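Why does residue order matter? Because the sequence determines the fold. Keep that principle in mind as you read this record.
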Amino acid sequence: MRRFRAQVTGYLTTQNYKEGSLVKKGDVLFTIDQRPFRPRWRRPRQTMRRRLQRRNSLGSPLAARRNFIETKVISQQEYDTAYQNAQADTASVAAAQANVQSAQINLNYCTITAPFDGIAGIAQAQIGDLVGPGGTAVGPHPNVADQSH
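Structure:
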């Protein structure tokens, strides 16, 4: 028998099983209110799109400037500045992608699934309870009896 805890803090909105019923690995047991997590997912995606557009718009001029430096149309300093800006934009895109991934992970944690096949027990938390990593165990008390042995 195993307990499990929510990985994000939020209010429990659904319990999707009947206590004492068989559950299969991957079955949705509970959901946590996703409303606070959706904007935290949308904003980084919008930021990432803007940064990708900026990086892509600067990529072509940098290639052109490389040709200009060889023909002495621009100074080495001007090219170095453009190169550093392109590198900073690439780093900015990578940071935005990491923020999107982190937000997606937290959004995914709002859906609590059965980690294995078993019999669902009595839930430790009820709909409307605030749950989270440091709080009360969400899932079956000594309840989702592991049937995988």
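DSSP finds two helices and seven strands in the chain.
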